[in-house]
Amino acid sequence: MTTRSSTDATRVIPEATVARLPVYLRALTALADSGIRTCSSEDLATAAGVNSAKLRKDLSYLGSYGTRGVGYDVDYLRYQIAREIGVTQDWPVVIVGIGNLGHALANFSGFRSRGFRVVALLDADSTLIGQSVAGVAVQPFDELEPIVREHGVAIGVIATPAFAAQDVADRMVAVGITSILNFAPAVLSVPDGVDVRKVDLSIELQILAYHEQRKAGGASNAPADGGAA
Ligand SMILES: NC(=O)c1ccc[n+]([C@@H]2O[C@H](COP(=O)([O-])OP(=O)(O)OC[C@H]3O[C@@H](n4cnc5c(N)ncnc54)[C@H](O)[C@@H]3O)[C@@H](O)[C@H]2O)c1
After folding, report:
1. Which of 18, 135, 153, 217 is deepest in the core (most CB within 10 A)?
2. Quick one: which residues bind NAD(+) (predicted)?
């Protein structure tokens, strides 16, 4: 799958590269914070935890090749990547479902520092309405439409129980949200043109558990189907 670049509609960047750009951005920010002005592709690859050939290929999609013998200008590359991802602009975001996870997300300072401004916290539970979380008052979910219109919200976060997630997604799409970050353990169905990213920490843990089991020489080393790959 590919993603169309935001800065040049004719240029297409592979989805896997798009997924690594925020990692490069974070690594470059750490380098800049420690006063480093230029870096080699090897330095940046190490900081980002990828191999340097992959990094050079990824950056070539941005038209960024570095300077032979000097490497990459850290600030300029940060700017290029931030522009490509779209985080040089401010993105208003709404969070729906202000329970345990919604509270944690609302309190996460990393959104704002990366250009994501939480403009509204919405919940269906009337007992939560008016409560302040991270300085933002929880509002009724029914207010979604005017909030999206007022702030030009394109990105919505779902932190409701699984049973409510599809309905929340449908309402988001109906009012014009075109990107959804879904934390609920539910597979969402959305129309073409709407992007959904799913975050599931328990799946990540299960993948680690699988590798732990293999390290320990557990059952997954001996396929139950008689050895077929
Ligand atoms: N992806 C992850 O890694 C991860 C981690 C933790 C929890 N979760 C998931 O996140 C979700 C929230 O977990 P939690 O512990 O915060 O739950 P919670 O019960 O504390 O909070 C859920 C909130 O959603 C609200 N809600 C329910 N239906 C709604 C609707 N139709 N519209 C608007 N709001 C609605 C509830 O009133 C409640 O405040 C769950 O689906 C859980 O499985 C995912």
Report:
1. 153
2. 97-102
| Residue 71 is labelled as binding a ligand | no
- Domain limits at 54? 2-85
Q: What percent of the chain has pLDDT over 70?
A: 90
Closest to 124 measured CA to CA, from 94, 157, 160: 160
How many A from CA of 200 to the centre of ligand 1? Answer: 13
CATH number at residue 57: 1.10.10.10
Are the beta carbons of 119 and 146 closer than 8 angstroms? Answer: no
Which pair of tokens denotes residue 200? 């599931």
pLDDT > 70? residue 225: no
Q: Does 86 count as an annotated binding residue?
A: no
* pTM for this model (two decimals): 0.80
* pLDDT of 1: 37
C-alpha dist (Å) from residue 2 to 15, 16, 21, 194: 5, 8, 14, 14
Given the cut 0.95, state whether the ipTM is greater than it.
Answer: yes
Task: Please report whether residue 219 resides in a domain.
Answer: no
Q: Which residue, judged by its Cα, is nearest atom 38 of ligand 1?
A: 99
Distance 96 CA to ligand 1 centre (A): 8
